[in-house]
Amino acid sequence: MNEEMITLTIDGVEVKTKKGNTILQAAREIGIDIPTLCFLKEINEVGDCRMCIVEVEGRRGFATSCIQKVEEGMIVHTNTPEVTEARRIVLDLILSNHAKDCLTCTRLGNCELQKLAERFNVQNIEYAGEMSKHEIDDKSPAIVRDFNKCILCRRCVATCKNVQEIGAIDCIGRGFESCISTMYDCSLNDVDCTFCGQCIEACPTGALHEKEVINEVWKKLKDPETYVVVQTAPAVRVALGEEFDMPIGTNVKGKMVTALKRIGFDKVFDTNTGADLTIMEEANEFMERMQGGGVLPMITSCSPGWVRFAEKNYGELLGHLSSCKSPYQMFGALIKSYFAEKYGIARDKICTVSVMPCIAKKYECSRPEMEVDGARDVDYVLTTRELARMIKQANIDFAVLQDSNFDDPMGEASGAGAIFGTTGGVMEAAIRTAVDTLEGKNIDQIEYKEVRGEKGIKEACLKVAGNEVRIAVSSGLANARKLMEQIKEGKSPYHFIEIMACPGGCVMGGGQPIKSAKVRSSVDVRKLRADSLYEIDEKSAIRKSHENPVMKQIYDEYLEKPGSHLAHKYLHTTYHPMKKYDID
Q: What is the pTM of this model?
């Protein structure tokens, strides 16, 4: 089917583009970079900020290029003196009510507002006047909200409301008092926020950022009495390089391990091993439910943003969630038990640090349930961005590092553990083990491509040991809600469901390197990162969790078997209904 094309002229260049495209899209197709601030492709296309204005011959006033559709014969000018001056005034007005602490801002060097100020050679603020002042909301263990750096672009609002369908934040007040806040201007900690961090990824400035624990981790590393162990999630290794100007999706596992050892961690382990543990326990739990009449469908529980969403919105359905902890929590619990006993290290001297692509894991590790015999499973969670900052603080030239391997005895992992970092990966890894176990033999099929890809809800029906097993994979909380409503209405056809809070899975987590709106419009970041994880899996000598010899060692020496009393003590947890709003 041939699509209708439109011919127009932009800055003297003739361009043919699809009917229905905007002037902004058409301009970018021929290398004309119209500046934007509020625009976020397919998420926030409202034309509020007015930075993208252009002149269209024959029309009065300016056209907003991010929403103005192209028309046949249209003649557009993007860089006239009048357009440039209008943009400069818009930018000046935004800056006049913006905090000026750029040198100490977490987004220094990666701020879209800062880049526009540089682009337009802003050297002073002409319209300086009264500035609005707001208290910083840092009550939550995961996200800090600083409205003094907000530019009212509403990208965070659109992401929370339209992508995740949570609506924890919105614009309140009018005129000069307008601001982005929550119901009754409460902390994010006390409303229906899931701490997924997608708002941070959408924010063009430093108005939203993760709650940093870098200084606390440095203190532990410098304490000679503390044995500091770090583990890194699969999605981190395919995104960390972007913080050092490497191509999106570059697998920097070896350099990352070398950097962590130079920073001073006593042991550097792979959370993929924890993912293999999760599969051992989760696959066993699923089979027990299938064969013993347990609650179905069973739903994965390794995404803390999703778990918080379920606790706040579907408390009556929590029995459907797997009791398994997240891979990094499982691993942390074993570091302070199995590893500590095996190597004669007092567990109260061990500090466990996890490097995660996820903001919500900062919240998860602080939950009271994530503790065994008085010892926290994980003491600190660093995001991918925080690790990059630590590497730079340690004067490490990341790009030239040689590769190193994870430490033994808990550094070996399967390819199944690696694909945990992308949507569908947990399900695929679990099915590999569950099918082998239920069939009682090694099945040649390893890849289950039905659950791969960017589609929000993916489903498949498998024949396993003569039975049908219907599975579904959900990415993003809006899609999670659809599946939960099915269960609530008694209409769910599935036996096993994977849910990830972040659209695309952990590779697109709220703690990953932040990409500008322009990059997000032109590059499929999710696919590049996910493809790198699948490549790791394809090249792995071991591609099924139950075939990882480290699993056999841990169960033989300590846990006995999946689902054992000790396994439940260290690797499983419980969840509880929560109030949607904790407002007095």
A: 0.95
